[in-house]
Amino acid sequence: MNDQSTPSSGQELKSEGTVYFFDQATYEQLTGQKVELGENEILAYGYQYPGRLDAQLEINGKTFTIKEKLNSNFIQGKLPQSDLFQHQMGLYLVLPDLNQLGLKVDKNLEFSISAKNKDNQDFISGLIKELYSTDKISQYGATYFGGFDRYSIEKDWRETAGTLLFIGIFLSVIFLLATVLVIYYKQISEGYEDRENFVILQQVGLDQKQTSTTIRKQILTVFFLPLFFSFLYLGVAYKMIAKIVAILGATNAGLVLQTTLSVCAVFFISYVLVFLLTSRSYRKIVVR
């Protein structure tokens, strides 16, 4: 069982977010881990939480000691976290018993049905329509019924994500090719301009090895200095980028970081390959 609590109106807040309360039994069921909690001891996990989670928390006039700060989001992929899209900050607290809180909070009963064939999917669609019926809401004394059909939502998300992925890859390839070709042909044109200078240097004693070293240093600077600053700017802006993609639904910080590093690796490898090609062509021009 888990409860959600949002700040009441008129309350002064430094930041706004959603607090999730879980009892010990629910936490153990979600994680498969056994924990021992005293009467006023809690486990805590903060998602984009600005405060400290290594001391105590006061909730509704009661002081709770944080026994352990959790390092991972234990409901990721197991329970919906739609509130994070709105507030972008969440605090997950695990207590021995939710009755200790003495809070009036919203209670959610969440369950899922596995449907791996067309008949079951049609059944779920009909069930969702039934749950949204006004008569059913009043019959069970509930304030709200909500249902989500994973298959239709997944289909919509795949279409949206696929479109954005195609546009992103298409534009990235275009800009990468444009940048690489500009640098490549700029170096080739400079090679023809510098050929006479290298001929003179070779005549006064510059050997083949020194010529290759000079060419490599020059092209290294031209190619990798812009790439270095690109990665530097990305590092500075990464926090803002992570928040933007979180709004779009990518709340898995580890996955976002892995994707960013993978894209950087693709760009770096592309630059290295073009650098080797450019260096070879440039050297052929100036040492003729």
Question: Can you walk through the features of this model?
Answer:
With 288 residues, the chain is α/β, with parallel strands linked by helices. Helices cover 56% and strands 13% of the residues. It contains 7 helices and 7 strands; from the N terminus they run ββαβββαββααααα. It has helices spanning 24-31, 83-87, 118-131, 134-139, 150-203, 208-247, 253-286; strands at 2-5, 18-23, 41-47, 56-59, 62-69, 90-95, 106-108. A 7-stranded mixed sheet has the order 4-5-3-6-2-1-7. Strand 4 and strand 5 form a beta hairpin. Helix 5 packs antiparallel against helix 6 (208-247), helix 5 (150-203) packs parallel to helix 7 and helix 6 runs antiparallel to helix 7. The longest helix is centred in the middle third of the chain and has 54 residues, at 150-203. The chain is elongated, with a radius of gyration of 29 Å.
Label this structure with key terms.
288 residues, alpha/beta, 3 domains, seven-stranded mixed β-sheet, 7 strands, disordered N terminus
| Count of DSSP H/I helices | 7
Mean pLDDT, nearest integer?
A: 76
Strand order of the largest sheet: 4-5-3-6-2-1-7
Using the CA coordinates, give the radius of gyration.
Answer: 29 Å
Biggest beta sheet summary: 7 strands, mixed
Shape: elongated
Order of helical and strand elements? EEHEEEHEEHHHHH
**Uncertain residue segments:** 1-13
In percent, how much strand structure appears in the residues? 5-15%
Helix vs. strand class = alpha/beta
| Count of distinct strands | 7
Query: Helicity range of the residues?
Result: 55-70%
How many domains comprise the coordinates? Answer: 3
